[in-house]
Amino acid sequence: MVDLRGRDFLKLLDFTPEEIKHLLKVSMTLKKQKHNNISHRHLKGKQIAMIFEKDSTRTRCAFESGAIDLGMHATYLGPTGSQLGKKETIADTARVLDKMFDGIEYRGFEQEIVEELAKYSSVPVWNGLTNEFHPTQMLADVMTAYEEFGHLEGLKLTFLGDARNNVGRSLMVVCSKLGMNFCACGPKELWPDKDLVDVCKSIAESTGGSILFTEDTSEGCKNADVLYTDVWVSMGEADEVWEERIKLLKPYQLDMEKIKMAHENVIFEHCLPSFHNTDTRIGADIAKKFGVNEMEVTDEVFESSHSRVFEEAENRLHTIKAVMLETLKK
Fold first, then answer.
1. Catalytic residue chosen out of the listed positions 164, 185, 271, 308
2. Residue from 60, 137, 141, 185 carrying the catalytic annotation
3. Is 183 a catalytic residue?
4. pLDDT tens for residues 78-103?
5. What residues contact 181, with CB distance under 8 A and at least 6 apart?
6. Strand pairing partners for 52?
7. pLDDT at res. 243
8. CA–CA gap between residue 242 and residue 13 (Å, rounded)
9. Which among 58, 60, 107, 318 is annotated as catalytic?
10. Helices 166-177 and 17-35 meet at what angle, rounded to 10?
11. Is 285 noted as a catalytic residue in this protein?
């Protein structure tokens, strides 16, 4: 029996395959209840604090809306909404908040921050995103793939782009945990660090999964069940990085040619937001500066029948609810 009560949710390396599968099962149950208007206020009366040092759409909405669905109240502390790290230490903040709240979410910068919050907090701490890992996103990603194919073991998921970022690293972790075949397809200088790769390869050996790195898009996309990409410059990185990344990653832009290299029923996933056109301020600015109207994915792929990005975004709600429910329930 899986029991996650009182556990922190900091990175998926901390969880067994059975525990991750349990969270996915709970997520799907909660999704059915939501769609059928079945009340599931299992955590009525509890309260959570949400610390956001980085702005968000999906993560904030999923935690806040999910808390309400579960009968809780959520307090949002935005980038200027707390003294964390400025006038008050992380340890002191954790020890203040755990006296007022039943759980603490953190979205921000170094993994060490969320780890320290958890160290000094007596209530569960959940990682909404750090520079190193994005575990709540991963649950939504694999849930979306499971809904599409009915299984996860043996599926090939290829990530095109900068596999050093939090999404690329986290996808490698979750695929290795669940017996999936993970492929990082991009420039060698943007592959994940060797220590994490070695850990994931060891895990994959025990689950029947595999880890592959290639600079060849034909090899990367061949027989892929899921093609995944992310923005070329992450939040918090300097604007000057754009020119370098565009040159490095333009060959790995996900277009229909690469979709055709994969399985006929391949799905496209993206954690969002996406620069697939120039209809945003940043998208328009990049187009003006560098002449690139579509970046990590073309608009044709984004709007195609292969795209599952909005189903994936919805699944952020159900998976985050599962994490809160399983770690906070009595």
1. 271
2. 137
3. no
4. 887 676 767 789 999 999 999 999 99
5. 154, 155, 156, 157, 175, 209, 210, 212
6. 107
7. 87
8. 31
9. 107
10. 100
11. no
User: Using one digit for the tens of pLDDT, what is the confidence trace for 310-326?
Assistant: 999 999 999 999 999 99
Quick one: pLDDT at residue 265? 98
Has 107 been annotated as catalytic?
Answer: yes
Asked if the model's pLDDT at residue 247 lies above 70, the reply is yes
Q: Which of 7, 22, 60, 134 is catalytic?
A: 134
Between helix 281-290 and helix 241-249 the angle, nearest 10°, is 80
Distance CA 65, CA 244 (A): 38
DSSP H stretches of helix in the chain = 17-35, 58-69, 90-97, 111-120, 135-149, 166-177, 194-207, 217-221, 241-249, 256-261, 281-290, 299-302, 309-328
Mean per-residue pLDDT for 138-165?
98
Dihedral sign, Cα of residue 231, residue 234, residue 238, residue 244: negative
Q: Collapsing DSSP states into helix, strand and coil, what is residue 82?
A: coil
- Residues 6 or more apart whose Cβ sits within 8 Å of residue 85: 113
Is 111 a catalytic site residue?
no
Describe the strand order of the beta sheet including 47-52 as a list of residue ranges: 73-77, 47-52, 103-107, 125-129
Query: Is 230 considered catalytic here?
Result: yes
Write the CB contacts of 192 (distance below 8 Å, at least 6 apart in sequence).
163, 164, 168, 169, 172, 184
Structure tokens at 39: 């009340």
Q: Answer yes or no: 58 catalytic.
A: no
For residue 183, list its beta bridge partners. Answer: 158, 212
Average the pLDDT over 187-205 and give the result. Answer: 97
Write down the catalytic residue from 58, 183, 230, 318: 230
In whole angstroms, give the CA distance from residue 158 to residue 117: 33
| 118: confidence class by pLDDT, cuts 50, 70, 90 | very high
pLDDT at 237 over 80: no
Grouping H, G, I as helix, E, B as strand and the rest as coil, residue 208 is coil
Say yes or no to pLDDT of 235 above 80.
no
Residue 85 has what pLDDT? 67
Q: pLDDT-based confidence at 241, cuts 50/70/90?
A: confident
Answer yes or no: are the C-beta atoms of 162 and 246 closer than 8 Å: no
More confident residue, 222 or 81: 222
